[in-house]
Amino acid sequence: MDQGSEDFAAFYERHRDPxxxxxxxxxxxxxxxxxxxxxxxxxxxxxWRKVRRHPAPAAxxxxxxxxxxISWWRRRRRxxxxxxRAVAEDSGAAAHEGDGDSTAVDLVLRDALRKLPAxxxxxxxxxVFLDLDTRxxxxxxxxxxxxxxxxxxRATKALRAELVDRTExxxxxx
Length: 174
Prior knowledge:
Belongs to the sigma-70 factor family. ECF subfamily. This protein is mainly alpha-helical. The protein is built from nine helices and no strands.
């Protein structure tokens, strides 16, 4: 193996799982998140000379996966008529399908994350799941560092409220 291949192999091994978890937090379907992450890593390999010089290559992979998902969603939106009731019925079943290895806490947290606006979800994914600093997150998203802090604050507040509300509902059921 040449040096570039070894660098990419080490990068892939180190960042495969965190990148997948970050994409999974933003995409409702586990299988689609796996495909998006694989596609993003394939693109990273194809452009590895450029990507490895990026200040946060793992953020590049996640951003590429999320951009691919947005492109997919835009194409699909034009192709298929949207039935709000069918989507609402399917989302409950699809959100928990194939998650036999997830704990109840993971499912509750993922459901709470999905209720956040897209930009807040992206900030949480990059700051918390990938443990990037504010400046790197801002650069990856193309926003100001203050915007990242504001979105993270709002997201944290919303997640806390959602999780406390969910906990209180569980206690009432008991």
